[in-house]
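Exercise: predict the fold of this chain.
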Amino acid sequence: MNDNGNMAGVIVRDPDIMCGVPVFRRTRVTAETLFDYLEGGDTLDEFLDGFPAVSRTLALDAHECIDQRLRLLFPDHDRQTAGFARLGLKNGRLLDASEAAGF
């Protein structure tokens, strides 16, 4: 993972880019779009085909960062439970929750 797990190296929030919605660094592709694709049953390759501005490495790093934050937010749950929790958090609520928790 790049930037020793630093979410800012993968996903950014800037009021001047997509009104502050979390996006993949150096793109206008929202992080939520990746999770919508995966939740909808699409593959990572299908997402990457639709959004060539997002590299495979960047998408995988974002997924890993989210998983790490979920494990910190839900330490008593296994990885599968954390994954289900991720699917239920939309529109940046995961990032808001993790930031509120100090991560």
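Check your answer against the key: The helical segments are 31-39, 44-50, 56-73, 79-88, 93-100.
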